[in-house]
Amino acid sequence: MSAHALYSSLLRPPILHILRAAGFHATRPVVLDTLVDLTVRYLMLLASTTAAHAEGNHNDACPDVTDIRMALQDVGAFVPQMHAMEEQWNGEEDMRGIESFLDWVKGDTNKELRRIAGLAPTEGQVVDVEALNAKEDFLTALKKKHSKTGEESRYQGTVLGIKAEDKVVRIEGGHAESIQAWEAQLRGTRKAPRASSPGNFSAVSASQDSPLTDLG
Q1: Is the pTM of this model over 0.85?
Q2: In angstroms, rounded to a whole number, what is the distance separating the alpha carbons of residues 172 and 178?
């Protein structure tokens, strides 16, 4: 399975939960794949825009809240909102886009989605943020379900596990024990091209057939 197919498969459950929260009880595979592709494109656009702002604002690959806010504004998540130059010209900060975005996230539109995600407490209940962080996500639970030992060694060296250590690739049937040794041996035995001697050059230039004799 390619990396693109793996990431698309991991994104399908969240999209299904969003459709469920929106009131859909079923969908066709082609519709689900289309929604997953649109989500991937939007997230890639948001991530690349955030990285560009981080590089331009403070010459760092690690973005901060300001970089994320500017990226959300660029992709159209904050509407209506004035541009930064307009805010500077008017001498005031426009918070309409951010306030409407927060109202949309915390409003009744996404109430069912927050309930499915465990972020909507019932009446008289308070959401424990630390408990949510300690709670296992669906991917971790799925990995433990399909791993008999419950260890991370099964997924080592893949995108689902820890990074594997580089191993030496040994060559069978030759004098070199590794690719590095074979490369060094190849560079050592490679000969430089032979240069023409001055005697040969003078002989050619003095020849009657050479066009150089007609110049004088």
Answers
A1: no
A2: 9
